[in-house]
Amino acid sequence: MARIPDSFIQDLLNRVDIVDVVERYLPLKKGGQNYMACCPFHKEKSPSFTVSPNKQFYHCFGCGAHGSAVSFVMEYEGLTFPEAVAKLAESIGLQVPQEAGGGPETPRAEPGVFDALKAACDYYRQALKSAPSAINYLKGRGLDGKTAARFGLGYAPGGDDWQALKKVFPDYDWNKLLAEAGLVIDKEDTKRRYDRFRDRVMFPILNQRGAVIGFGGRVMGQGEPKYLNSPETPVFEKGRELYGLTQARAAIREVGRVLVVEGYMDVVMLAQHGVEYAVATLGTACTPEHVKKLLKLADDVVFCFDGDKAGRKAAWRALENSLEILADGKKLTFLFLPEEHDPDSYVREYGQGAFEAQVTQQAVPLAQFLLRELSAQVDMDSDEGRARLIHLAKPLLARVSAPAYALMLRKRLAEACGLALNELDGVLGGGGEARAAPAEYVAERGAEYMQDDGERQWQPSSEREYGARRSERGNWREGRGNWKEGRSDWKEGRGNWKDGRRERPLQPLPRPHAGSSDPLQRLLQLVLAAPMLAQSGEPLWQGWPAEQLVVQVLQHVRGLPAQAQSALVLEHWRDTVVFERLNAALADGERLFGRMEEAERAEEFAALLQTAGQVLARPTTLGRRAELEWRAAHGGLTEAEKQEYLALLAQRRG
After folding, report:
1. Is residue 151 located within the same domain as residue 256?
2. Domain end call among 309, 327, 362
3. 452 phi and psi, to 5 degrees?
4. Whether residue 450 has pLDDT greater than 90
5. Is residue 20 part of a domain?
6. 201-210, 223-232, 342-351, 588-597: which has the highest mean pLDDT?
7. Nearest CA-CA partner of 34 in 55, 13, 63
8. Using one digit for the tens of pLDDT, what is the confidence trace for 103-150?
9. Domain at 261, CATH number
10. What pLDDT is recorded for position 489?
């Protein structure tokens, strides 16, 4: 698959000014060396959104949004990376080159497909003006002309004319683009062509750039199917697109919430009544791609379904497709309207206020909905029924990757089954094995509480209290230190007991001036925030393990032109698995080092290079487990390192 060369992206970022780019979308006010504004990505009254002309970088201290000029255009307009690059390049008169990549070629539309769809859309809109039956139908549904125009509604003529689009396309009978765009159907047996959409109210479907990519057509009376959608085409994939997103984007950003409904008319009528942050799936169940897009749009996603059996089935499909994508800090809820209503009829009968009260007060959180649906399938009054509930929930819980959310789900399930959390974890994980200390407990207490063959094993609070009472009676655990008069021989700085012998503690490494839980991560944050530090002096990282991300970043920065900016460094890793990690590290680096003087940053960089080098040298003699123990005792572990340490312990026990 063709890709945009890195050299072009670097040249583009060097030529555009992020201040000019952002000012095309919102007014900026000078504040010291930077520019300020109210953040366009979340609702706020006081400006916390800053744009740095020196670093060519934006950052919001309220919601954490940050990035380069390319990132801003992507987030603000909802564009893909290539689309944002093309838009910026066009603004300064550059042509985007392409270079061959290693991936498979993706299907591309022939030039003219978008033009064909646009021409058909214009025709349908004009046809609506002279179609009394369609106008009366829309008026009967309560739709006004202003809303119909905003969403570009039209009418596909029917009756005896099976080739109405001939009025638009003189080459109708042989134009291949019409078939490729899904506008016509070719009958192979009769070799005859006719319009796909006939005698239907037409809802144009737009992509994120506002171009027509397909249609949904609704019958006005009795008939099947009630809704007819465009087929899959090179420009239209139902499992990825959302109806009404172009019109709803500004409201979603303003409210911080996106409402997902089932039908086109639901979106249109909600917007007419002031609920402008609604979108709809296109006649399909909510797919994982839909969920990914929704969670990028807002932190609060509400799925709104009819209260009947079909609505609950659709809601369950949405839940299943959300489990692996759900992230901590995101909120997914499910709203079920009374069975006699859909969003369209409810908002028309009760108004905006009543509908939004349903959204904010009656929507059920994902965890509650999951357990409620599963509990309805079993007898919760019997042990067998509760065991069955755990059996049903286990594969679903295993798909949740968000650690905090997974913990809360397990706690809810444990409470529902009348179990302690550790008992449930034993069942879910196979049971019978010694449990490792919770990662947050390890991080707080350091290596003293790291589980090992000759060290303490973590216990829940109630068990720790019981152990403390036992300690008053003498030995706590055989071979693990003697307790005298309620006190242990274990004292900080005097070593650990193992097999009756006291081990000497590891000698601490030199520390940089500012405290850090991980010198490698801190070094990564600093070099991303101030790349020029790595462009001068001796490259002390030569010889460090090449698989370390910080080494790769240092090497890349070393090869860039002098005074390379942070945004330029970051864009090199766009569309890679480490991009989000680097993006977050850059934001942390800006927060930690952004206000330091240049000399202070250089001193910090030198100290971190020394410390990081010694940390990377330790595993060759002590092993990875010992390194993690040392880090836990001298600052703490990252979440990934905590999980890695626990996995190493499990391997050792096995």
Report:
1. no
2. 362
3. -155, 175
4. no
5. yes
6. 342-351
7. 55
8. 444 444 444 788 899 999 999 999 999 999 999 999 999 999 999 999
9. 3.40.1360.10
10. 42
Report in angstroms the alpha-carbon separations of 219 from 28, 120, 157, 529. 48, 18, 11, 57
pLDDT band per the 50, 70, 90 thresholds, residue 258: very high
Nearest to 237, CA basis, from 177, 186, 305, 289: 289
Q: pLDDT class for 95, splitting at 50, 70, 90?
A: confident
Choose among 162, 128, 158, 164: nearest CA to 145.
128
pLDDT at 82: 83
**Residue 367 C-alpha from the chain's centroid:** 19
- Determine if the peptide bond prior to 505 is cis (ω within 30°): no
**SS3 state at 78:** coil
Mean pLDDT of 593-599: 82
Range of the domain at 284: 245-362
Over residues 471-482, mean pLDDT: 40
- pLDDT (0 to 100) of residue 214: 95
Q: What is the mean pLDDT of residues 557-575?
A: 78
Mean pLDDT of 484-508: 42
CATH at residue 192: 3.90.980.10
Question: Does residue 135 belong to any structural domain of this protein?
Answer: yes
Which residue type occupies 207?
N
Nearest to 519 by CA among 507, 509, 528, 532: 509
- With 0.70 as the threshold, say if the pTM is over it: no
Name every residue whose Cβ is closer than 8 Å to that of residue 30 and which is 6 or more positions away in sequence: 36
134 & 33 share domain: no
Measure the CA dihedral 449/453/459/465, to 10°. -80
Query: For 476-481, what is the mean pLDDT?
Result: 40
502 domain residue, yes or no: no
Indicate the angle between helix axes 403-417 and 366-375, nearest 10 degrees. 30
Q: Are 417 and 389 in contact (CB under 8 A)?
A: yes
Question: 47-52 long-range CB contacts below 8 Å, 24 or more apart?
Answer: 51/18, 51/19, 51/22, 52/18
Could you tell me if 225 and 252 lie in one domain?
A: no
Domain end marker among 229, 253, 268:
229
Whether residue 435 lies inside any domain: the answer is no
- The torsion region of residue 199 among left (phi > 0), alpha (psi -120 to 50) and beta comes to left
| Structure confidence at residue 468 (pLDDT) | 38
On whether both 127 and 179 belong to a single domain, the answer is yes
CA distances from 580 to 101, 245, 279, 571 (A): 22, 24, 27, 11
The answer to whether residues 324 and 291 touch, using CB atoms and an 8 Å cutoff, is: no
Angle CA(610)–CA(616)–CA(617) in degrees, nearest 5? 90
Dihedral-angle region of residue 159 (phi above 0 means left; psi in -120 to 50 means alpha; beta otherwise): left
Task: Tell me the backbone φ, ψ of residue 200, rounded to 5 degrees.
Answer: -135, 150
